[in-house]
Design brief:
Two copies of one chain form a homodimer. Chain A is 38% helix and 25% strand. By secondary structure, chain A is of the alpha+beta class. In chain A, β19 and β20 form a beta hairpin. The longest helix of chain A is centred in the last third of the chain and has 38 residues. Chain A is elongated.
């Protein structure tokens, strides 16, 4: 019997050991699909940036493998709001530009509030989650220091050989690129000449700072400091929420930059608190005070995404892209990784069904390629529209936050009519029907005949 | 007993005898609410423009008064697509700009298609529907040649006196402005100095033409001519559908105009076919041929809306606004009147409940004002967000149709990622939950205490 299992199971190679790659690996392991992860870095030390997951994405993790959720929580995820009498998380938009007197009833006006529900957003540090996630996966599954060079066909059955920069290589029946915004798999799949192979500058820069809670309370007041708030105004916005067991707030300011940022230049450069002092000079005094508590030297991030040149397809033969590799979004929805988790759940469903289809098939080794290619076609059909919508919608959210009309009193009412759209876009993310996605994916794959691909078609 | 009915029933005055005013009147009559309609024109002859109603709006009409639907259909409403084997209506977006060879697979590419369902859109001529609608309403309900001058308080109970340009006046307990985009009631309510009292130029102009079906078939081919199609491209689009018992097509071209259009200038001026020949010079040959079948002299309409300066509220005391008077939308969703019909259903529900509340109340004549003011507050709460969303969304739909990226091959894929948003916006209109609106309206009114307003508060 083990012989048959050996023959009919596919082997999946995941390129990239980030949050999406490791979550997918954990899901495949749970669903008895053979998998290997190839990560170019020497280890899993990443930048300590904050990230958040919706309750909906946490459910998707749980459907792949409940251990992913345990890892998230053991990595210190906490709700992004911290009202101890109310477990719901609220996203609150307030007027950050208005610099009028504190007695004015429209001073720091609360413009809009949305409830994301119970633990609706859980914030965590990327590095801490990743560290906990690695422990979910047996060590032999992951290979470090494997920078992908290229991919080629191997043998008559469409099996793939991955060649790494260190001269080694590996084989697989299916390759999934989870290698992030600067994906090498995307570049190999679309070709080096295609502008869709690379992310482009979104003309926004971000500055982030951690501020001790007592200083934040001093500047913002008790309530605002301890709960997520988004201070919006013309051409900029500043969002903050409590982190580090509520001893600090994580604040991020997004500024519009009409200038260019060369594609080949590093996207993180030194920035100064002074830049923010200038950008927010006309804003609310409480924000200006908060910025005074930022360190003098900050990191400045150029925000890149795949908005200008989206990938025309997420699959080619037995190779496909997931997460940021497929659709790198700007961070204005705070949900880029959530969409990648949805991708992973879809792929987990499909890879498991590929194995079901092949089980007991005496010609399995010959039919694996066709079964995988069909599955990746279904993945492209199920996920491309949503992934690209998220990239567009994230840009739009930034535009709505940064409306120039916020600075013109005669246009305030118009500016405030944006929030129905903000709500619709947020709900489309938060209320994603993952059960329906699984059902539709399953049905579409069941209906689809295996795609017969010649050995050359999967080659890049 | 008739004496008690006399004492407790409110009297509603509707200003404006257009589609929304007359539909609301028909609804109020059906719900035993006393109503009078004051129309400034000498009769109900309107321009013979085409308009369409969603299946959803037709349901709303039916809930107000099934005779409205009979009037719509007797006025010649037909589905906007005419495939005799398929009763569903489809909205189809095709590439109108591509001027490549007919053999090119992307020639006139079908970019997106949405099903609006069974009789999903019914197109009619405004004048024909209006003529049929007038017959639903007893003649003594409608007074013609009543141009509203101003409104004043009358007596201690907040009753309103409407003063007309002909020197006559009328009284009512509640005034509903259904007087369209150039609403006098809005101007009186917000004040002549408020820019929200007037619509503003949307920087789009529209040209419309009727083309005989055989000429349309010649230019577009059998299928396109007989079914709704939207030809989109950079800075312009052209939409057409069959009318006049399918003997003609109604074609409308929308062009972007960066110039200004003074608010006090007439919005319909003479235009020339030559204007369109120039605007569409680089477009698909079949469209250019179609335009050759337009009359040489056309009407050119400047599209105005309330996008720049939305009304800060739809109600003030016992006066409120509905339809275009409240939220005048550009026509790019083809659903402005549908939203007005939703308003009318909400008001019909509320006015009927005001009467229920007052029935048997011995102080009814004193309490009418408070009951009406509360009802109009609920109306504003229920309808303002959606009405203003529609105005914004209609602008956005035009932007998505007219993306500059349609002219740049390297940006086509990006441009095509807009359709998920097109779908979401369309569905938000087509799938409106009117049952839920009625329930929420009823609950909100039941919970609300009567608003006590001094006699001055309703005055303008």
């Amino acid at each position: 019997m083990p012989g048959i299992i050996e023959d009919t199971s596919i082997e999946v190679a995941i390129v990239g050991g980030g949050i999406i790659g490791l979550s997918l690996a954990a899901g495949l392991i749970k669903h008895n699909v053979k998998v290997k992860v190839y990560e170019q870095a020497q280890g899993f030390r990443e930048i300590g940036a904050g990230m958040a997951f919706t309750a909906n994405a946490v459910q998707c993790m749980s459907l792949m493998n409940p251990d992913i959720v345990s890892a998230l929580r053991s990595g210190g995820a906490v709700p992004a709001s911290s009202d101890k009498d109310d477990p719901n998380v609220y996203l609150t938009w307030i007027d950050g530009f208005n610099s009028r007197d504190k007695d004015d009833p429209t001073y720091e006006k609360m413009l809009y509030r949305l409830s994301a529900g119970h633990r609706g957003f859980e914030g965590t540090r990327r590095d801490q989650f990743l560290e906990a996630l690695v422990k979910v996966i047996p060590p032999e599954i992951v290979e470090l220091k494997k920078r992908l060079n290229n991919i080629e066909e191997k043998g008559p059955n469409g099996r793939i050989q991955l060649n790494f920069a260190d001269g080694t290589s590996a084989e697989a029946d299916a390759v999934i690129g989870c290698d992030g915004i600067k994906s090498r798999v995307r570049e190999l799949m679309l070709g080096e000449e295609d502008p869709a192979s690379y992310p482009h500058y979104s003309h926004k820069v971000a500055y982030r700072a951690l501020v001790p809670m007592e200083k934040a309370v001093e500047a913002l007041g008790e309530y605002k400091a301890r709960n997520q708030h988004n201070h919006i105004g013309p051409n900029a916005y500043l969002i903050h929420y409590p982190v580090a067991n509520k001893t600090m707030i994580n604040a991020t300011a997004f500024l519009t930059d009409p200038g260019e940022w060369p594609d080949d230049k590093v996207t993180v450069v030194p920035g100064l608190r002074k830049d923010l002092e200038i950008a927010f000079a006309d804003w609310n005094p409480c924000l200006r005070t908060l910025i005074q508590h930022f360190p003098e030297k900050l990191e400045k991030w150029a925000v890149f995404d795949t908005w200008d040149y989206p990938a025309p397809y997420f699959n080619k033969g037995n190779i496909c892209l997931a997460g940021d590799a497929a659709h790198a979004s700007s961070p204005h929805h705070g949900a880029g990784a959530c969409c990648g988790i949805e991708d992973a759940l879809c792929l987990c469903t499909l890879m498991s069904q590929v194995n079901d289809r092949l089980r007991g098939d005496e010609s399995a080794s010959k039919n694996k390629n066709a079964a995988v290619c069909s599955a990746f076609e279904v993945f492209d059909f199920m996920r491309r529209t949503r992934g690209q919508w998220l990239v567009n919608s994230s840009r739009r959210m930034c535009d709505l936050n940064q409306q120039i009309d916020w600075s013109d009193k005669s246009k305030w009412i118009k500016a405030e009519t944006c929030f129905e759209e903000v709500r619709d876009r947020s709900f489309k993310i938060w209320h994603f029907d993952y059960d329906d996605m699984i059902k539709e994916t399953t049905d579409a794959y069941a209906k689809r005949q295996p795609v017969t691909k010649g050995p050359e078609s999967g080659a890049i």
